[in-house]
Amino acid sequence: MPKRQFASDNHAPIVREVIEQILRANTNHAPAYGEDQITRNAKLEIARFLGRGNGDTDNIQFVPTGTGANVLCLSSFCQTWEAVLCHELSHMNTDECAAPELTGHLKLLPLTGDFGKIDLNHAASIMNRVHGIHGVKPTVISVTQVTELGTVYSLEELAAIRDFADEHNLKLHIDGARLFNALITLGIDAPTFIKHIRPDALSLGGTKIGGMICEAAYLFDYPQENELIPEYLRKQMAQLVSKGRFISAQWLGLLRDDVALRYAAKANAMAELLENKIAEADVRILQKREANSLFVELWPDEAETLLEKGWLFYNFLEPRQYRLMTSWDTEESDIDEFIEDIKPITAARTI
Amino acid sequence: MPKRQFASDNHAPIVREVIEQILRANTNHAPAYGEDQITRNAKLEIARFLGRGNGDTDNIQFVPTGTGANVLCLSSFCQTWEAVLCHELSHMNTDECAAPELTGHLKLLPLTGDFGKIDLNHAASIMNRVHGIHGVKPTVISVTQVTELGTVYSLEELAAIRDFADEHNLKLHIDGARLFNALITLGIDAPTFIKHIRPDALSLGGTKIGGMICEAAYLFDYPQENELIPEYLRKQMAQLVSKGRFISAQWLGLLRDDVALRYAAKANAMAELLENKIAEADVRILQKREANSLFVELWPDEAETLLEKGWLFYNFLEPRQYRLMTSWDTEESDIDEFIEDIKPITAARTI
Amino acid sequence: MPKRQFASDNHAPIVREVIEQILRANTNHAPAYGEDQITRNAKLEIARFLGRGNGDTDNIQFVPTGTGANVLCLSSFCQTWEAVLCHELSHMNTDECAAPELTGHLKLLPLTGDFGKIDLNHAASIMNRVHGIHGVKPTVISVTQVTELGTVYSLEELAAIRDFADEHNLKLHIDGARLFNALITLGIDAPTFIKHIRPDALSLGGTKIGGMICEAAYLFDYPQENELIPEYLRKQMAQLVSKGRFISAQWLGLLRDDVALRYAAKANAMAELLENKIAEADVRILQKREANSLFVELWPDEAETLLEKGWLFYNFLEPRQYRLMTSWDTEESDIDEFIEDIKPITAARTI
Amino acid sequence: MPKRQFASDNHAPIVREVIEQILRANTNHAPAYGEDQITRNAKLEIARFLGRGNGDTDNIQFVPTGTGANVLCLSSFCQTWEAVLCHELSHMNTDECAAPELTGHLKLLPLTGDFGKIDLNHAASIMNRVHGIHGVKPTVISVTQVTELGTVYSLEELAAIRDFADEHNLKLHIDGARLFNALITLGIDAPTFIKHIRPDALSLGGTKIGGMICEAAYLFDYPQENELIPEYLRKQMAQLVSKGRFISAQWLGLLRDDVALRYAAKANAMAELLENKIAEADVRILQKREANSLFVELWPDEAETLLEKGWLFYNFLEPRQYRLMTSWDTEESDIDEFIEDIKPITAARTI
Questions:
Q1: Residue B232 to residue D105, Cβ atoms within 8 A
Q2: Do C110 and B107 touch (CB under 8 A)?
Q3: At D295, which CATH number?
Q4: pTM above threshold 0.90
Q5: Which chain B residues contact residue D228 at CB under 8 A?
Q6: A9 lies in a domain?
Q7: Any CB–CB contact under 8 A between B105 and chain D?
């Protein structure tokens, strides 16, 4: 059985730097529910990372799951009759078991669009259909960066969405479960990204890039008089962990010394290597790789053979489309082993 | 500033045995979302702890918060028109920000009762008032063990509640956020407790007794054909963490070699010591201590003086009622220091 | 089978004046969803009735059910983490099948109190327990006038609740499903009542006093900038009927020429007559009658005998407590017939 | 101002036969909440109309709004993690203000498709994406007959959807707010329609075809042991009117002597006449008329001129697309007047 797989960055362990901060936090008593000093430090760290000075006008909530972060961001802006525009393949629409609707009490309005990216024409047609109190009021548009299909919105694409949001008086939310990987792809730092896009809310994922249970909901310039809304919602959604310092500590581990960014660069680089090497093994690449996942074509029986050899990875949306994902700990040797196991399979293909 | 406080067992750090299991789990890739081997092991361990053989007919879900465990247990039995009888001071009614109603989609029916324990007469009067489809259908009765007021239901009291549940066709849920402490107080092991009470659901808390983020929803003899219901609910409630092995590993740390029970014994013993020593300091004890919390009478200015000396603890329900809580790491020296700081205060009282 | 029963004013037919207005409204086309002229007229009429001039700062929604009116009033003030103080026997807590929680997305905090009236001491103890984001935030206190137990809050009692609401920054809601009967009991007109109590919201019931499907949610001085909130909620709660003019027309029938008040006076007077005559039949009255319902003591077999004779009425809360309710169409002859049927039953009692 | 408009069949008054039944029902007392004899009769009548014998295995709920009927039908089959496939332009997705999600506690999965009809390929691609507990479980497919775009599914199209439902183990719901009009278009009677499609649930609309407040949720062969589920839901959704006999009576008026069907035939015939005559006035018809609505092309300033002349009708989805709808009371003279007012407008067009 391979030590490391290409199934998901969720399968990877915790990075050393996060473990160290957990151990460092594990001393004496500290106030519960995020009232501790480590949490205050982590909030400053995350604000600094995003280029928000000390983040005084921002509202930051640490939560245990990415679904929790998404729903918290959205619900902080939506009443029950308000709605969120999102891609039909977005995590919140397909992989959160209706948490936005049932736990967040809002409606999603799914949009089509190639490569997992929102088609603004579809968004515009929905906005044009809004008619008073009969339908919901679209209030937020949510984009996923990196998308579920491994693609990365360019700054131009994001700027167009920002313009669309401004034009239609929508808040802009970014599901950044893999934002670190996207920043590497775009080749820019977080402050530049944030200044360019001016999101109103960001779900920032720390788990996939090396944390243990480490997610954040970041609300930009959230009204001071409403500051308790996300707090109440987090509690109501059962997302307020009692020993909060141990989520916060993980963020210190990920953000200090650019740890998460460096691991993201590693994961992306490994995906690029995989992309290059797998082409040599005669495997068709279905879509240009942009971050840390690669979509390739395999016949089901070929995939089956690889699974029997101990490799774990997922079929994705189409019968012959498979996702290969690298993570912070992927090694070149993993790729080589995998390619070695593929080669006889593709070599056996008859034309 | 004291290293350890009497504010809450939630303020305590993580026990060594849990840290060790987290570190041991942190190796190579493992399936996400609880599909890993460590999770399977932890489920067996928790079933064994409760005397359930290999727990084949039980349904076990690990979650990050106690609120999540409670709501998951209740929602697994309730439709939207069904309701849960619980004490008016129970955590689910007063400290979960309407999570049972809004995240769990059910109604709570709060009951009165002295010392945080349900008054079955009140429960009976509510059951007698049920009239068809106009009101909700009570479906579950929930008891908290240890209660919010630090009391412990006796086996006789619990048996009466079990009988009441049977008579009225209710499921019985135990909020066991501090069940380990209660077992020590009762002087029985978990299998005896479970066999005696036959709960249908148990929220078992690991965080307060030394875990980091470590809670479980345990459903006894849950119908095999409904086994996905708690799974769907956990996902929908944003309680399914991706790197699930790291919650499961904590349970291994707590349950193997009776670690949690031994720490609970320590916490209870320290509360007993505090009870004995504080009496000497002329502080009135408001209610017989039963587990790891002590309710004492202080005047607000006295409490203020102690807070200024760095001690943290909470006022509770009544103006002069304060809760002092020990935890797994409380040392006799902590108690001595605290008593030393109290003595001059009570000595200064004029009669 | 008696033509008229003492079961409920809900069992009564529609008054002539309402029918006339429905027929008058039934001509040609009119805009749907309450955008028609009859609805505008009905809003003016209801504002006038309550002494609100043309009601310019008020928000009025016509809905088909009393539960709809209650939930709409409450939800117009509450977020999902906010809560409503109400009597434990109030209709919203016991007879609306969790509509406030599940359709209105808020939590009820039930209060004890004799004779169906809120005990403000209990309310105060709950307010004192509120602690930040852990529990819900009480936002509204709701009183029912006439109460479920047929009692009527005095102006002094209501003023005390108004003071309590002001002190704790709560909105005050009145469930006035039988407000017309209460006004008769109090001997004051609606404007005096409203000026004295200054409610923030009123569920005004028209169905029980002679309407067909005829309820209203009245929000006093509701912020202009939020005016669409109750509109969205009404639609979302499926309470927006398409041919809205036919609910509005009913209100014209009830409010013009004091129709509803006159019928309420009739119903109350008949209840008083019943109270006087039934005492002669040796039936114990359990509670002083205040509006249009009378609570009397009967043995279950006595009630059974009356049911066999065709009389319909309900047992209420206690084994020997029965509610007898008059309605707008109760005649003295109904009472006489009923008494004639009771007399042999009570005469047969052995002491 | 014209007496009758082409805005919506919701703008029309109540038919004489419904009024007569309301008046007939308005006598003496009757049990509330649908426990009366008229309701029992109306249930038999509706079962007979649908060819269901006495409807013994069916579950029928009368409700005041079409949104209520839809949500009740869907919620009777769905848990909170279950979902409903429906057209993206369906009433439930665009005109019910998220009632299915927020009042019904389920998720909608909108589908594309031309002319308001579901594209089964899109449905199939969504079914293929379902992956265990991460996403919702599709449980119902809902079709609207007549669709929001005035089209009518053929029996073949519906049979294909029925097959799809069977293949994927989905319940089939029909939103029949205008089912009477569709039956006329298809030229078949209701029993034939039902036998052919075997729906599991039907929202049957009586208001648009001549009722006042008159909708029904019809569940076919609903499990006897679950019979209270729709009852509880109806109450919880505030859809249970107290004087239920007055909704039921309307159904007697609509169903006896084929009243509704005859009025539907009238409305459809008038739409056909409008279609023929408007073509002569040089107005482009955008889509073949199938029931009682016609979609035509007008320039906004042309529509404005007509509005100024007192005509009311709605723009629909596209900038130059306007919907003209006939109703049970449309007269040929209405059409002639309307055409007369159009002619000078289109005559003034420059090419």
A1: no
A2: no
A3: 3.90.1150.10
A4: yes
A5: 133
A6: no
A7: yes
